Amino acid sequence: MRILWLVNIEIPEFFSVLGIETKIFTGSWLISMLNELKKVENVNLSVVFPSTKVKDIKSVQIDNVNYFAFPKIYRRKLNNVNYAIRKYSNYFYKILDITNPDIIHIHGTEEPHSFAMAKISEERKIPFVLSVQSILNSLVKHYTGSLQLNDLKPNLLDIIFRKSVHYNIKVISKLAMLEKETYSLAKFIIGRTTYDEAFSRILSPKSIYFHCNELLRPEFYQFNYIWNINKCERNSIFLTQATHPLKGLHIVLEAINLLRKDFNNVKLYVSGPKILEKSFINYSPYERYIFKFIKLNNLYENIKFLGILDAEEIIKQYLKTHVFVSSSSIENESNSLSEAKFLGVPSVVSYVGGTTDRIIHGVDGFHYQHDSPYMLAYYISKIFSNDELAEKLSENARINALKTNNIEKNILKLLNIYFEIISTKK
Fold it and tell me: Which residues make Cβ contacts (< 8 Å) with residue 1, sequence separation at least 6?
């Protein structure tokens, strides 16, 4: 079986052969799927991905996997979507001539190259399946994360350098229209949550939907890491993403302000850019909002921005954390939540999107209304003040995560989906 993947991330192994160091911080769960799939007999795998490090198609074969990098067009330079589609199509025609796949798996619909590949697949009558990742048509409705646009007013530099929330929403809205067209071409869709399936029914009502869970990053399977309440930093909270308002950092900060009354040493750790170390002039509108809130409420001692963490660093942070929080105003599944549960970290999660399938309230975590910081603070305080509860949540979270993110089960399910789709062509 000849399988071609189109993914949105750069593959480190590809660049290591070329002597170029690269790290990935999103979508790295795909590496686990890739590592397992290439072990399967009679599977010929090709992986195609965009890169800022190449100026034309560059191909390398490693461990019987054919990798193809093609030049990436930045979203912010995407003034002409049709131009991008033509460029990507020219690359894909060449790659498909070389690989001649039996099936194409398009991971995500957020970028124009997904539409280009779907269109060519249809033209060449090669069956393809879409995997649901971020759904832009949903994301754009929740982008400001309960903040008003007046809270995120751009200054002149934001407008000049295209850092305003208004501009981001405009770009996402344009790509969301293209996403609709991509879904309209799809006959087969892979998802893993009720949210996935619901939106798939809206965007592609005649498609066949398959459920298939994903894997975590390879490092999570390599050692038997398990959270231990006696080794964590008491009254600490971990948030893995906070760059955009939809990730809800402003809600967590409001909760921190409430928690200080009973837990004055409460500490929030945030992976990602070190906002407080940046020059104010370089802030985005959302970063300005965050900075002002921290300053107004004197939260400097209660928050620490950690910078961008690799897999090993983030595992260490999970394990030292008392409570993991996912505070998004919309989320698909939340890979961070899956990672936290896999390690057994007690979690409090906004009740949005696909996370509604990933937490059994009061059993392996807590849900809260995404724009209610007082409810977030309430559930965090319950865990802070009750070790028996924390340990129960931890144990149940790990049991459920081991089932959801099982390597053998998920790879077998994926292969069966491929076989079923290919059989429909005959």
Answer: 42, 43, 44, 102, 103, 418, 419, 422
